[in-house]
Design brief:
alpha/beta, 7-stranded mixed beta sheet, 6-stranded mixed beta sheet, disordered N terminus, binds nicotinamide-adenine-dinucleotide
């Protein structure tokens, strides 16, 4: 695998870059393609070569085989997309909302038709199991379905006689070109949190997917094209930091929806503020699950295990720290280890597998580094997934589930987002002590409590900041018709993803005050 010796910052976390020539390479391996394609951008209704001269590699984490080469675009390719989106905006804005959603209905049907095809593409490039990929495609469809309701959702409000003979009406109007910059962990779903709502509101759109998993978006853009969305309304530009900077600096972009790690989320939010763009920026997570002694321990252990190790822990809603109160600690520890031992690691396409590989070999090294760190800090490694070997797929980026007990809040493994299959278990003496630990953490994406007491559940919801809260729920994931996003260092902005917030974000509210003589 050719890796540039001076890995630029835009490579993202551990992503290998290579200035490879554009010609197609041949390949043999278990992933079917014998010719590796170089991906194109989708701009102005057609696929076109990027002007980029550097390319990254999209690899299948289950086998470490090359799936495609992705152009690492910069400002020039972004500008092409902005120009196409700007040209398309006046006609799209003038298209009545009821007509704008017709191609979205068609898109929804195409998603159903190619459901398994999209899910398989996700598993190939990301590694998660086929069932996990299917669930994420279902969530993408949910978002398209909600956006189909725009003729109702984007209505304004009005009041007759704000003074005698004077009426006041608010209209929601689209703002122009928006862009979404998305992470690797949900290749199909996260861009669909934004694109359907933005274009249904009458804006035009650019997606910059994660350079590690661009194939699902390529497939989805084929479907957007087939659905009859007019040229220039949706555009796809590949790349990493340089493409992101091209978006942030471009004066033709009205707003940015970002999802990724907190440092980059904060950077994007700050740059948007400086360049006068709207911004909703969703960052990283360290999600606590509080288990009270009165909880149903069977369910708490089972659900927390699924929450932590689902998608190999690469989920912003994963419960990565179990905070067991009082006598819940010993029982939870024992049950969590028992549950985690049932996990079947392997190729996400293989039947019976319940946890796939992590995204890259570099990311596996990073997660292994956190495990070393936890051992050094004195936590007890009650389940050690480091030595996991997959005999059928020796080159895949696999690791088994790991569980640390005796974790304390000051340890690095308790403070930092690991984003891998590692669960930390902590003990708190009382409910109040547990609440204080959650409140002290700088991130606040999601959290859960397991209890049979309505009082504890209510108090927990009242006191802690994470904005996606589960009561006896492991993955507190808001559906497409509710807002999605966290608090504290996990979210920068005012309006969250999807739900009614989305309509607010993608429209201006114009107030018209009228008197007739
Ligand atoms: P990431 O921050 O590395 O990348 C996200 C996007 O930013 C990608 O498109 C990438 O190309 C771009 N990028 C990377 N480095 C950049 C830089 N230095 N400057 C400008 N742009 C840059 O995140 P990731 O590793 O792809 O995804 C995992 C992270 O995303 C985790 O922290 C996870 O918690 C978070 N996430 C959050 C949510 C949420 O709802 N809050 C949802 C999914 C994922």
């Amino acid at each position: 695998m050719p890796v540039s010796p001076d890995l630029p910052e835009c490579a993202g976390k551990g992503f290998p870059m290579s200035a490879v020539p554009r010609e197609q390479a041949t390949l043999s391996g278990p992933d079917a393609p014998t010719t590796v394609r170089t991906l194109q951008n989708f701009i102005g209704g057609r696929w076109q070569d990027a002007t980029a001269t550097q390319f990254g590699e999209v690899r299948n984490p289950a086998h470490d085989t090359l799936l495609a080469r992705v152009p690492m675009c910069g400002a020039a390719d972004v500008d092409r997309a902005v120009q196409a989106a700007t040209r398309a905006f006046p006609a799209w804005r003038a298209t009545p909302p009821v007509n704008r959603v017709r191609p979205l209905f068609a898109l929804r049907n195409l998603f159903e038709k190619y459901f398994d095809d999209i899910a398989r593409t996700i598993t190939l490039e990301h590694g998660k199991t086929l069932d996990e990929s299917r669930s994420s495609v279902r969530r993408a469809v949910d978002n398209i379905e909600v956006a189909c309701g725009i003729p109702s959702l984007m209505q304004g409000r009005s009041l007759e006689d704000i003074a005698t003979g004077i009426d006041c009406t608010t209209f929601r109007q689209p703002l122009g070109v928006f862009a979404a910059i998305t992470p690797f962990n949900f290749p199909a779903m996260v861009p669909m949190w934004f694109l359907p709502h933005a274009i249904a509101c009458g804006n035009t759109f650019i997606v910059k997917p994660s350079e590690r998993v661009p194939l699902s978006q390529v497939r989805i853009f084929e479907l957007l094209h087939e659905a009859g969305i007019p040229e220039g309304v949706v555009n796809l530009v590949h790349g990493g930091k340089e493409a992101v900077d091209g978006i942030l600096e471009h004066p033709g972009i009205a707003g940015v929806s970002f999802v990724g790690s907190s440092p980059v989320a904060h950077y994007v939010y700050k740059r948007c503020g400086e360049t006068g763009k709207r911004c909703q920026s969703l960052g990283g997570a360290k999600n606590f699950v509080l288990v009270m002694p009165d909880a149903n321990m069977d369910r708490a252990a089972q659900v927390s295990t699924e929450s932590c190790f689902g998608c190999a822990g690469e989920r912003c809603l994963a419960n990565s720290v179990v905070l067991a109160v009082g006598s819940a600690y010993d029982e939870m520890t024992r049950r969590l280890v028992e549950e985690a031992k049932k996990i079947q690691v392997g190729d996400g396409l293989a039947p019976g597998v319940t946890m796939g590989p992590v995204i890259t070999s570099q990311h596996r090294e990073k997660v292994l580094g956190y495990i070393e760190q936890g051992v050094k800090e004195g936590a007890t490694l009650a389940l050690d997934g480091r030595g996991y070997q997959d005999a059928k797929n020796p080159n895949g980026y696999y690791m088994g589930p790991s569980i640390f007990t005796d974790v304390t809040p000051d340890m690095v493994i308790a403070k930092e987002e690991i984003f891998g299959p590692v669960l930390c278990v902590m003990k708190a003496g009382t409910f109040e002590e547990a609440v204080a630990i959650v409140k002290r953490h700088e991130l606040g994406n999601a959290s859960s409590i397991f209890t049979s007491s309505g009082k504890y559940a209510r108090d927990y919801r009242w006191h802690v900041e994470p904005s996606m809260l589960g009561i006896n729920i492991g993955v507190a994931s808001p559906m497409a018709f509710f807002p999605f996003g966290g608090a504290k260092g996990s979210f920068f902005g005012d309006l969250k993803a999807h739900g009614q917030d989305s309509i607010e974000f993608y429209t201006d509210k114009k107030v018209s005050i009228t008197r007739w003589f």
